[in-house]
What we know:
Chain A is mainly beta. Chain A is 14% helix and 35% strand. The longest helix of chain B is centred in the first third of the chain and has 6 residues.
Amino acid sequence: MDEQDGDRNRELMLDGNAAGGMLYDVFSAEMTGAPTECASCGRRGEIGSLLAFTQAPGLVLRCPSCENAMVRIVRAGDVTYLDARGAVYLRIAR
Amino acid sequence: MGEPFVSRGFFGRRRQPEQAGRIPPGQYLVDDWPVLSAGPTPRIRLDQWRFTIEGLVRQPVSWSWEEFLKLPSKTYVVDISCVTKWTKLDMKWQGVSVDTLLQAVALDSRAAFITASSYGGYTTNLAIPDLVNDQAFIAYQEGEKPLTPEHGGPARLVVPHLYFWKSAKWIQGFRLEEREQLGFWETLGYHRRGDPWKEERYSGD
C-alpha cells in the first residue's frame, strides 16, 4: 500500500499516561510511573512510555520498541479481564 | 429505538422508520466510519501480500494479490455494527465471497471452526456456519475506492451479521480447526460469536 496514506490509527495512538485512569481503577495504584519489562524484546521503561491503544474494544499497551502487546484490559460488563503475558512484570505500589 | 439519532432534515423523513428496524439494540447510528484499532497499522506490500487457507484441509491454498484480484468478486451492501455501539448502514463493499475461497480447498470432516488471522498478529474465531452461504467476504474496496490501511486494507474480512471485531482487518489467512481457538478479544471476555441482535457482547451474555 501507499506509504503516504494518512493513518488516523497512528494519530489516535497515545502514550501509556492516557491509560492511567483505567490502570488506577484496576490496580488501585498509580501505575504510569511504574517500571515494567517487555517479555518479547526485553525493553525496560515506565508504563507511561508504552504505546496505548484506547480506541478499541479494550485497552492495549504495546512496547514502543517491538510493538508486542504487553498489557490488555477489557471491562466486560461488571467484570474486568487483564492479560499481562506480554510483560515480564508489573510493579504495583502499596 | 423510538428516537431518531440524527436529523436528516428533508432527506430523512421516509428513511427513518426503515432505519430504526435495522439498528440492533443498544446501538446508535453513525454517518462517519470510526477507526478502531488495537495496534499500529501494518504496512503490507502488495507484491508480498498473500492469503492462505490451512489447517484441517487436504492441501493448503494460498493466493497472491494478483491471483486474488482475479477471483470472482461481488458488490455487497450491508449494515455494520461495532461492539463499541456504533452502527453504519448501507456500506458498499467489493470483495470475494468466503464460499469462493473455501471451494478451493477440500475440508477435513472434523473442521468446524476458523481462526482468521491478520498481518500484525490479530486473530478472531468464527464457526464455519457463520462464514458460508455468502454471509461473509474478503473486501478490498469500500465505496468505490481501495480499502485504506487504517480500515484494514489492502483486504479485510467482513462478517456483517456479527459485531465488527469479527471482521478482521489486514487479513492474512484462515486456519481450519476442530475446536474453537478463541481470538484476540475473545480470550479477554468478549463473546465467542458476537451477534449484535442478541447483544452478544461479552462471554455469558
